[in-house]
Write a structure and sequence with these properties.
6-stranded mixed beta sheet, Diaminopimelate Epimerase, Chain A, domain 1, 15 strands, binds zinc ion, binds cytidine-5'-monophosphate, single chain, alpha/beta, 464 residues, inorganic pyrophosphatase (n-terminal core)
Length: 464
C-alpha cells in the first residue's frame, strides 16, 4: 500500500488541478478532508464532489467536467469497469470489482487493502488509504492521522476486536507522535463527552443492557441504586465527569447485569474497549471523541450536507459547527423514526437471511445505519444476515448487514451484492460484513431469493 501511495503521490504532483470524488458517509467525508488538506499543502487546485455511490450518471458528469485528474476516495474500487475515459487515482477499501471483470490491477493507480490480502472491513478505511497518499505527498501530513482514525471509527472498524487493528494501528502511532490522537481503554458507550450518563445506558445496544436499554427512568434508578450522583452544579454529569472508581463501579455492575441475563462474560466485556480522542479539540464536545465526531459527519452527509462535515474536517469551527449541530438533531430524530418504522414493518425470516422493507418511510441514506442498529440491538436474530430495503429516487436501495460470527462462518455480503447486481441490473458492492446496492424497482423478491441461496451456499461451504 505504501509503494502504491508513493506512485499516486508522484502522479498527483504532475497535475495542477484535481477533482476529488468521495462518499457521503463519515469515512468518505474524512477522506475528502485529508485529500483536500494535502492538496492545499502542496498548492494544487482542487474541488470536491460527494456522491451516494458511483453510477453511470455520476461518472458521465465527471467525464464532462474534463478535469486533469480525478481522485476517488472511499469509493472507486468497486466500479473499475465503469471508469474508462477518466484519468484517475483511487484510495479505497471496498472489495474491488475486477475480481469479476478482470481489469488488470497492475495498470491501476489504487491503494486498497484487498490488493495485499488484507480485509478492507477492519484493516484500514477510505480515509486511511487516503492518508497514506497524503503522507507520501508530505510527511507533515501525519498531523491528519486523526482524520484517518475518525473514518475508521465511522466505518465501525473497531467493532470486531473492540479496538482498531492492522494498518490502522500504524496510523494511530503516527497520530500520537504528531500530538493529534490519544486512546484509552474505557466504556464504549456513544456520547461520553456530551450526554447525561443515563442517556448512555439508555442508548446502549452493544451489549444490550437488560431492563435498561431504551428506558431512561430505569437507567436513572439503576445509577441512583449504586449511589452514583447523577448531577453536579452544571446539571447532568457526563461520563467524562466521573471519577475512576465511579466508572469502574458502573461498568462492573453492568457486566453483572448482562451476565445475569444469561449472556456469557465475553459478551459483557463488549462494554469496554479502545476509545479514540482528539487532544487538539475541546474536551466535552462531539469533536473530542471519534464516535461522536463521526456521527456528526454522518448527520451532515446523509442529508446532502456533506460539505458541512467536510468543512469541519478542514477545521471550520464556526458556521459549519453550528449547522452540523442542527443537522445532528434531525439525524437523531430520523434514526429513532426509522427504527420504529422497521419494527412496525416487521422483520421477515427466510431460510438463511431475514429482511424488512422501509418503503418510502425510511431514507435510502440511513436505511443501512438502521439495519446495523437493529442487528446489534438483540431484537432480531443475529444468526441471519439482515437485508433492509427503502425506496430511492433511482430504484430500491438495499443494505445488508452481517456479524463477525457470520463472516467467520463464510458469509461475504459483497459477493452477494455483486452477484445480485449482475443478475438484476443494479449498482452495488461493499464488504464481507456490510454491503449495499440500488436495484430496479420491483425486484426485491427476486433479490431475496437469490441472496437466500447464495448465503446458504456460503454458510454451507464453511460447514463442509
Ligand atoms: O462505505 P463504507 O465502506 O464507508 O462503509 C462501511 C460500512 O460497513 C459501514 O456502514 C459500517 O457500518 C459497516 N460495518 C459494519 N460492521 C462492522 C464494520 C463495518 O456494519 N464490523
Ligand atoms: O449503503 P450501506 O450503508 O448499506 O453500505 C454498506 C457498504 O456497501 C458500504 O461500504 C458502502 O460503501 C457499500 N455500497 C456500495 N455500493 C452501493 C451501496 C453500498 O459499495 N451501491
Ligand atoms: Zn469507508
Amino acid at each position: 500500500m505504501h509503494s502504491k501511495a508513493k506512485k499516486i503521490a508522484e502522479r498527483i504532483r504532475t497535475h495542477s488541478e484535481v477533482k476529488i470524488c468521495s462518499h457521503i458517509d463519515a469515512d468518505g467525508i474524512a477522506a475528502a478532508g485529508i485529500a483536500s488538506l494535502a492538496l492545499d499543502g502542496i498548492g494544487v487546485e482542487h474541488s470536491v464532489t460527494f456522491v451516494k455511490n458511483l453510477d453511470e450518471q455520476v461518472i458521465e458528469e465527471l467525464r464532462n467536467e474534463n478535469k486533469e485528474l480525478v481522485w476517488f476516495t472511499d469509493l472507486g474500487s468497486g466500479s473499475l469497469e465503469m471508469l474508462s475515459g477518466l484519468n484517475y487515482v483511487i484510495t479505497d477499501h471496498h472489495v474491488p470489482s475486477d475480481v469479476q471483470s478482470r481489469v488488470d490491477e497492475r495498470q491501476i493507480l489504487e491503494v486498497n487493502p484487498h490488493r495485499v490480502g488484507k480485509d478492507g472491513a477492519v484493516d484500514i478505511c477510505g480515509a486511511g488509504t487516503t492518508y497514506l497518499v497524503a503522507v507520501a505527498l508530505d510527511r507533515i501530513n501525519t498531523e491528519l492521522a486523526f482524520l484517518a482514525v475518525l473514518g475508521a471509527i465511522g466505518d465501525m472498524q473497531d467493532q470486531s476486536n473492540l479496538k482498531l487493528v492492522g494498518t490502522n494501528r500504524t496510523i494511530m502511532e503516527d497520530g500520537r507522535r504528531a500530538g493529534v490522537l490519544d486512546w484509552v481503554m474505557d466504556a464504549r458507550f456513544f456520547g461520553r463527552e456530551t450526554k447525561p450518563i443515563p442517556r448512555l445506558l439508555q442508548y446502549s445496544n452493544d451489549p444490550l443492557l437488560p431492563g435498561l436499554t431504551g428506558n431512561w427512568h430505569a437507567c436513572r434508578e439503576f445509577l441512583e441504586g449504586i449511589e452514583v450522583p447523577l448531577k453536579n452544579l452544571n446539571g447532568y454529569r457526563r461520563w467524562i465527569d466521573l471519577a475512576p472508581f465511579e466508572s469502574e463501579r458502573i461498568l462492573s455492575e453492568l457486566e453483572n447485569l448482562v451476565v445475569a441475563s444469561g449472556r456469557d462474560r465475553d459478551h459483557a466485556r463488549r462494554l469496554v474497549g479502545e476509545v479514540y480522542l482528539f487532544p487538539r479539540e475541546e474536551e466535552g464536545t462531539e469533536l473530542h471523541e471519534a464516535k461522536e465526531f463521526a456521527t456528526l459527519l454522518n448527520a451532515c452527509g446523509r442529508y446532502e450536507k456533506a460539505n458541512i462535515g467536510f468543512a469541519l474536517c478542514k477545521g471550520d469551527r464556526e458556521e459549519a459547527l453550528d449547522e452540523a449541530h442542527i443537522l445532528l438533531k434531525g439525524h437523531r430524530g430520523a434514526l429513532v423514526d426509522s427504527l420504529r418504522v422497521a419494527k412496525n414493518a416487521g422483520v421477515v425470516k427466510m431460510d438463511y437471511i431475514q429482511y424488512f422493507h422501509g418503503g418510502s418511510k425510511i431514507l435510502d441514506s440511513v436505511v443501512g445505519i438502521t439495519a446495523g442498529m437493529l442487528m446489534g440491538s438483540g431484537e432480531v436474530d443475529s444468526g441471519l444476515p439482515l437485508f433492509a430495503f427503502a425506496n430511492s429516487e433511482d430504484g430500491v436501495k438495499v443494505s445488508a448487514r452481517g456479524t463477525r460470527e457470520l463472516v467467520s462462518k463464510g458469509l461475504d455480503l459483497s459477493i452477494v451484492m455483486n452477484t445480485v447486481c449482475e443478475k438484476l441490473g443494479g449498482v452495488g458492492g461493499g464488504h464481507n460484513i456490510a454491503a449495499g446496492a440500488t436495484i430496479p424497482y420491483g425486484k426485491e423478491e427476486e433479490l431475496l431469493e437469490i441472496a437466500d441461496k447464495i448465503v446458504g451456499n456460503q454458510m454451507g461451504k464453511a460447514v463442509a
